[in-house]
Write a structure and sequence with these properties.
The chain is an alpha/beta fold and 249 residues long. The chain has a single domain, classed as Undecaprenyl pyrophosphate synthetase (3-Layer(aba) Sandwich), CATH 3.40.1180. The protein is built from 8 helices and 6 strands, in the order βααβααβαβααββα. Bound molecules: farnesyl diphosphate.
Length: 249
């Protein structure tokens, strides 16, 4: 690893922790867990936890953009959440998404945040699909970070979707290799995550980025997502930079 240099960027979140700006993860993925417990501990409703989580998410994305991370993926709604959570809760998450589109579109355009969705959002209500499309259509002068939001996303579902499309495209069996499968995933063209973070105290991956996580470093913490501030992320990046990434060597 090269000599450590503190990130010298103009961001309100950057601390004096010695993270090496030459060895940042290219792609950070986060399972945003613990919103409801965070709310319950404060006598609030589950939706208040998701709102606090959405506010924290904006700080995290801005921080990543400011220090030079090029890709961030967050798990906002799994295929299982979509099927099993109450209509009220799912509607609440859609409401937060609509607010992001309403309030952040201009800021994303100005500050180089390119929005992507990973997952099958075709079954969503028309208003939500229209809002997603509005975000996907943003044209940036200068892209600084790709921001992937996983919505109705499941790692297995993504692989099924890829295989179906490979068959539809009549790709001959001898042309199917790892590189081709990667191109058929929702993350097509983006590097695999180097660092996957799960706040909220659970030690599982919950069907997240199953193909892409092959060599990711996995960081778990008990801190609940709304409290996983940029300062905590900086500690996770510091931890990541201490790993000996042999990548099979
Ligand atoms: C998991 O915590 C979190 C979710 C299922 C929703 C995550 C959504 C947000 C943070 C809002 C951001 C929204 C968008 C659209 C970008 P949990 O509810 O399972 O919490 P628990 O483990 O405490 O029960």
């Amino acid at each position: 690893m090269t000599t450590k240099t503190t990130t010298s960027v103009n961001s309100p979140f950057v601390t004096d922790l010695q993270i090496d700006k030459n060895a940042l993860p290219k792609h950070i993925a986060i399972i945003m867990d613990g919103n409801r417990r965070w709310a319950k501990a404060r006598g609030l409703k589950p939706g208040d936890g998701h709102r606090a989580g959405a506010e924290n998410l904006q700080n995290i994305v801005n921080y990543c953009r400011d220090i030079g991370i090029k890709n961030i993926t967050v798990y906002a709604l799994s295929t299982e959440n979509w099927r099993k959570r109450s209509l009220e809760e799912v509607k609440g998450i859609f409401g937060l998404l609509l607010e992001i589109v309403r309030d952040k579109r201009e800021e994303y355009t100005r500050s180089g945040i390119r929005f992507f969705v990973l997952g099958n959002f075709q079954a969503f209500p028309f208003k939500v699909k229209r809002a997603i499309k509005k975000m996907l259509d943003i044209v940036l002068d200068k892209e600084r970070i790709k921001f992937n939001v996983a919505l109705n996303y499941g790692g297995r579902d993504e692989i099924v979707h890829a295989v179906q499309n490979i068959i539809k495209d009549k790709v001959p069996a001898n042309k199917v290799d790892e590189e081709l499968i990667s191109r058929y995933l929702y993350t097509s063209g983006q590097p695999d995550p180097d660092l996957i973070i799960r706040p909220g105290g659970e030690f599982r991956l919950s069907n997240f980025l199953l193909w892409q996580m092959s060599y990711a470093e996995l960081f778990f913490t008990d801190i609940l997502w709304p409290d996983f501030t940029p300062k905590e992320l900086e500690k996770a990046i510091f931890w990541y930079q201490q790993r000996d990434r042999r990548l099979g060597k």
